[in-house]
């Protein structure tokens, strides 16, 4: 592969790669690699990723360059597209193993085993070829180089979500300036082109497009509002309900500030696809890097981990850590010294608090702890904020606790998070799944891009939609049900990961 590639050539290569099929990977496959894979196994995994990642990246480049509403031209989105392009280039210019002197025979249709530090290649029906120590060293060096390459890509893409959020805000500012609101323009062309404020687009279908009932509330722009403020923007404020599409309704919508909080259906579903793809890419890289590091000499990995997958993820541990993390952020950002308690209840054989034999009352299952942490952390922040805003910062006595109830089924493990934070008005429910919808004071994205960035309490509007994608990635789901005037229940359904295969957005 020539390293000097003109931008024209690169463009053509990307177009070509984007036409290739992506390959789904199941969690089971990732776990079957084993805890400490051999250098030979790692080499085969590297070859798979070397083939697969450019396809996935190329598809995103093509999509990022062809977004509706001029979004592709927003500088932050251009930046993201450049990163995807650069990472694509890094991979396609990374030498295949045969170019660094590894014999082709060890790379094709072979299963490899290592014994006593010496690798053997066993080709079907052909005599065994021995990987001598020298060759093994060469394979290990190649693997290490590949790990550096993809780790570098992962780091490059760390700020992608923030940049995309910035890009959407640039677009919204542009709409405001030019007084054009494509949400309404696309909606007024008929119900089928209408707004989907509904199921959050794309991923789980649901009542998309024409079926969705669209309601709007006036958003809280003033975050100082106490009361039911956290609940999706003052239920009292001029709610209008009805199916999308009639001229009158569109006129009514035009008068609603809430329109600013909406994204057209196609952008919403683009973001769902884009982030789902990103989760898959980061999972592939994260898993490979973790496996490679675990099998490198001298490292001691926990026996419960296979890469970043923990075969005995402890719900109690993750709930506790995420709760402390969220409470800490609440203390720092809202100055609450005794935050609402987060109480965990685990059901065994259908009975809450049933006596259990194990020393610690817990549920263990196979999952990626960092994903679960992410979702619980986001949900706890939402509940904490709602409880504190509903009951006031100067509340006498203790805040009502947030209850976490865990139920273990055959298919799913379900975690319910119940708060008494005033709930969300029904008209605000569809909006909570849209990116950028927030009733908190909007976070300054410039700050978020700075190096001293800490996770914010709220204010990006990404917490719920992204958490749902993380859960759906492994075959689970997230549902939110509210009792306006009282509180909110969030249900995290975690699939036990038997055979769930990766959802691959086109
Ligand atoms: N437990 C809850 N109680 C009341 N309102 C909630 C709750 N969870 C979410 N919301 C509403 O949904 C909105 C979107 O939540 P989220 O996606 O996490 O974004 P953010 O927290 O950045 O606003 C919040 O701004 C809030 O209005
Ligand atoms: Mg949030």
Summarize the structure.
Its main location: mitochondrion. Helix content is 42%, strand content 13%. It has helices at 7-18, 27-32, 39-65, 75-92, 133-156, 160-177, 182-188, 247-254, 265-295, 315-334, 369-391, 445-449, 463-473, and strands spanning 110-115, 118-123, 129-131, 305-306, 309-314, 342-348, 351-352, 364-367, 402-408, 412-419, 477-483, 487-495.
Q: Termini, distance in Å?
A: 27 Å
Oligomer: single chain
**Helix amount, in percent?**
40-55%
Query: Considering the protein shown, what is the CATH homologous superfamily of the domain at 308-495?
Result: Histidine kinase-like ATPase, C-terminal domain
Broad CATH class of the domain at 308-495: Alpha Beta
Broad structural category: alpha+beta
Strand tally: 12
How is the main sheet built?
6 strands, mixed
Order of helices and strands: HHHHEEEHHHHHEEHEEEHEEHHEE
| Unreliable residue stretches | 109-128, 186-255
């Amino acid at each position: 592969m020539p390293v000097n590639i003109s931008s024209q050539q690169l463009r053509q290569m990307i177009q070509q790669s984007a036409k290739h099929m992506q390959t789904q990977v199941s969690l089971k496959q990732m776990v079957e690699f084993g805890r400490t894979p051999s250098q030979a196994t790692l080499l085969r995994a590297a070859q798979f990723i070397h083939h697969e990642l450019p396809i996935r990246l190329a598809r995103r480049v093509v999509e990022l360059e062809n977004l509706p509403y001029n979004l592709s031209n927003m500088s932050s989105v251009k930046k993201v597209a450049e990163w995807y392009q650069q990472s694509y280039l890094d991979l396609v210019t990374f030498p295949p193993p045969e170019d660094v002197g590894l014999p082709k025979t060890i790379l094709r249709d072979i299963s490899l085993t290592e014994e006593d530090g010496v690798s053997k290649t066993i080709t079907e029906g052909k005599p065994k070829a021995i990987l001598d120590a020298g060759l093994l060293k060469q394979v290990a060096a190649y693997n290490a180089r590949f790990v550096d390459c993809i780790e570098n890509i992962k780091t490059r893409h760390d700020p992608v979500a923030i940049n995309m959020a910035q890009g959407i805000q640039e677009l919204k500012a542009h709409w405001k300036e030019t007084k054009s609101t494509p949400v309404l323009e696309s909606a007024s062309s008929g119900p089928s082109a209408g707004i989907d404020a509904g199921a959050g687009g794309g991923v789980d279908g649901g009542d998309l497009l024409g079926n969705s009932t669209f309601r709007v509330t006036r958003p809280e722009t003033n975050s100082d509002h106490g009361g039911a403020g956290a609940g999706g923007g003052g239920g009292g404020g001029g709610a209008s309900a009805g199916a999308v599409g009639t001229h009158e309704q569109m006129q009514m919508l035009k008068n609603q500030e809430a329109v600013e909080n909406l994204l057209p259906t196609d952008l919403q579903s683009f973001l769902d696809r884009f982030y789902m793809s990103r989760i898959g890419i980061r999972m592939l890289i994260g898993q490979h890097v973790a496996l490679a590091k675990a099998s490198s000499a001298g490292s001691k990995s926990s026996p419960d981990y296979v890469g970043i997958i923990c075969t005995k993820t402890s719900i109690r541990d993750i709930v506790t850590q995420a709760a402390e993390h969220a409470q800490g952020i609440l203390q720092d950002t809202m100055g609450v010294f005794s935050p609402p308690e987060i109480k965990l209840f685990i059901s065994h054989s259908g009975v809450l608090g049933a006596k259990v034999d194990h020393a610690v009352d817990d549920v263990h299952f196979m999952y990626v702890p960092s994903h679960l942490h992410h979702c619980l952390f986001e949900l706890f922040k939402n509940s904490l904020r709602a409880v504190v805003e509903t009951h006031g910062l100067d509340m006498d006595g203790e805040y009502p606790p947030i209850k976490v109830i865990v139920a273990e089924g055959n298919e799913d493990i379900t975690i319910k998070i119940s708060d008494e934070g005033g709930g969300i008005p029904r008209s605000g429910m569809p909006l909570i799944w849209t990116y950028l919808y927030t009733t908190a004071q909007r976070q300054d994205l410039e700050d978020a891009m700075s190096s001293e960035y800490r996770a914010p309490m709220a204010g990006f509007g990404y917490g719920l939609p992204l958490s749902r994608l993380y859960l759906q990635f492994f075959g689970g789901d997230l549902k939110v049900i509210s009792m306006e005037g009282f509180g909110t229940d969030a249900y995290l359904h975690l699939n036990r990961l038997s055979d769930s295969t990766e959802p691959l957005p086109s």
